[in-house]
Amino acid sequence: MRVALFVTCFNDALYPRTGQAVVALLERLGHEVVFPSAQTCCGQMHVNTGYYREAVPLAHTFIDVFDPYEAIVSPSPSCVGTVRESYARIAERTGDAALVRSTASIVPRVHELSEFLVDVLGVEDVGGYFPHRVTYHPTCHSLRGLHVGDRPYRLLEAVKGLTLMHLPAAEECCGFGGTFAMKNAEVSVAIGADKARHARDTGAEVLCALDNSCLTHIGGMLSRGRSGMRVLHLAEILAGSEQTA
Amino acid sequence: MSEATEVSADLGTDADRPATGPVGMNRAPGKVWLDPPAFPDAARVALRDSQLRHNLERATGTIRAKRAGVVEELPDWEELRLAGAALKDDVLAHLDGYLLQVEERVTAAGGQVHWARDAAEANRIVVDLVRATGVDEVVKVKSMATMEIELNEALAEAGIAALETDLAELIVQLGEDRPSHILVPAIHKNRAEIRELFLRTMPGVPRDLADEPAQLAAAARTHLRRKFLSAKVAISGANFMVAETGTLVVLESEGNGRMCLTLPETLISVVGIEKVVPTWQDLEVFLQLLPRSSTGERMNPYTSTWTGVTPGDGPQTFHLVLIDNGRTRVLADSVGRQALRCIRCSACLNVCPVYERTGGHAYGSVYPGPIGAILNPLQHGTASARDRSLPYASTLCGRCFEVCPVRIDIPEVLVHLRGTVVDDRREARVPSPEMAAMKAVAFVFSGARRLAAAERLVSLGGRLLGRRGQITRLPGAMDAWTQARDAPAPPAESFRAWWKRTRSNGKTGSS
Q: Which of A45, A73, A231, B501 is positioned for an S-S bond with A215, CB 3.0–4.6 A?
């Protein structure tokens, strides 16, 4: 299958290794990955902070860039959620009828990585090898927005050498919340402190999730606390193999 | 001039205090939410109170677990939520007709109906009604509507003492404190603190009072019982108004509400106009949704209903004061109007990660938590520091929507209101730093080449600031991040640069 990668601006600038892992993973599974280089940002930060007007051109750019592709995959549930839910709302608020139509057409073709692997490609064992203790944090957008359910767990359980550790109070938010992390930094940190404590209590070496934005927040707290625990995107764990280990 | 004007003039003496000042003034005498500060400032103060954090974590955790248990056992819970939302939406779409029906049926049943546009008008009506009875003391049933309009303060200005009879409201009142939760107004107090309060404020309390819930409740019961027997006037709210018969409904746990609703000669009920349900049959849905969502019980211990007056039984004079106070403004907002479905269960507070850390006072309103973060700006607009900041007092984690018994999509309304706050700001001649930054970022994102250039700059900055892959101190406003969190140092090469370097052999999408 030919897959268009929507890497997201955040991963593009700060976590290229996540994008590289998605490429390696999908190619290992025998698919062709293309990176439409005109892509920029879905507009999530602008919409969620109330800057609807600034988000409109970004939504149009996203749709123009990805419309030619049958399968669009992104390693970020919150960005996928923006396309699925927010674009229709932006269109309604700004009275953009063209955006309503094009959104409806592209939404069924935009997939979050774990959904794409399990639902579209029908694989749970992606041939990964990762000989470490790992715990998984279900991010709010993946859990309550996209409803990815147990797909990430099924993918992790099939990884060779991996020991999955249960994260207490897993379904609680990490406190990141996009610009909330800056506008209400103290509350964000207070929520994050509990998440970091639960993560450390698992005894895992690695905390993984589907969104690097949440991981930046949790990882930033773990790093400041000198915990020695690493954070990794799920894609990087799934892409691990006995050759790369 | 009216009492309401005197109140505000009187309280104006310390109105020059900066809006971002310490929140300690929240505990100052007089419980009115006076020009509350922006949420982040109030939250910062609340976070320092470790006793509060501990009390909240315990209390919300307990209620959350109870609710989850009684919701799980209903196979048709999701259908009930859908039904609740649909019923409320029907009421909101035909509110004018239903309200006239309520007025007609209540009047036919011997009650009198009054209409109040805002808090000041409602307070004036109630004060006049109480004055006409000649008493200077009233008993109250727990009611959010009367807290919202600050009726107790208006009555006090008129020389009328209002006694809260709900145990938690009584605790708040005795402590000259403010409610911090819709259902459990004293959730920020633990029982040791309540024991101290009772010893200090209740005459005749035994000095050896223990901090056992049963003993504390007994002390309050003794204190209240005398008042019930002598009260001539009671003031209540209502959870529901049944349009077909003009019946008011109150759900409660303690039975103190029923005392107030049955013993006095005059009953005055202050009710928001959105509280209508069309028929008794519709109560079937809400009497399941509300107790399970709020107290985590299958059924609340007391459900009282009354229709006008019944000769020889209960209050012989009944007044219904219907209040708007911003509700029609909410109704006019096509995205925000779903907030009027709210049945004040407070399930959203109990699951909110923000509320659990800050408590209710930080929201500067009798409606705290996620529902307060939308109701306040919807009812009052976004002109004040509090109402501008509340839509941002959320991580958008979505748990509030998940538990809401009437399916209010609170995150959707929060983001919608953020849009309103931003659009208001566009009018300013000098753009805020945030507006300037957002526009700059949008410009960078407007083309892939601009983005690639920006990424090279970010990468360079990262090399200057980063140590072993982490940045411990970011410059300027970005330091809000690094106060307590490290930031990842940007990589030497962005993803698109890597792709271009390693894959630019025709695989790159051309669009």
A: A231
Residue A3 φ/ψ, nearest 5 degrees: -120, 130
Cα B232 from Cα B229, distance rounded (Å): 9
Residue A140: closest C-alpha in chain B: B397
Structure tokens at B222: 């003794």
DSSP letter at B313 equals B
Six-digit token string for B337: 């109007």
How far is Cα A91 from Cα B191, in angstroms, rounded to an integer?
51
Neighbours of A14 (CB within 10 A): 24
Nearest to A239 by CA among A18, A33, A79: A18
The arithmetic mean of pLDDT across residues A65-93, rounded, is 97
Sheet of B302-307: strand order equals B276-277, B240-242, B247-252, B302-307
What span, in angstroms and rounded, lies between the C-alpha atoms of B52 and B24?
14
pLDDT digits (tens, 9 = 90+) for B229-273: 889 999 999 999 999 999 999 999 989 999 999 999 999 999 999
Please check the confidence at residue A107 and state whether its pLDDT lies above 70: yes
ipTM over cut 0.85: yes
Provide the token pair at A103.
Answer: 């959104």
Count of pairs with CB atoms under 8 A, one residue in A, one in B: 214
A interface test, pick of B387, B396, B439, B501 with most A CB neighbours within 10 Å: B396
**Does the distance separating the beta carbons of B451 and A12 come in below 8 Å?**
yes
The rounded distance, in Å, linking the Cα atoms of A58 and A180 is: 21
Number of H helices, E strands in chain B: 24, 12
Letter string b/e over residues B220-246, b meaning 16 or more CB atoms within 10 A of that residue's CB: beebbeebbeebbbbbbbbbbbbbebb
Task: Work out the end-to-end distance of chain A between its first and last CA atoms, rounded to an integer number of angstroms.
Answer: 27
Q: If we measure between CA atoms, which residue out of A143, A186, A220, A217 comes closest to residue B354?
A: A186
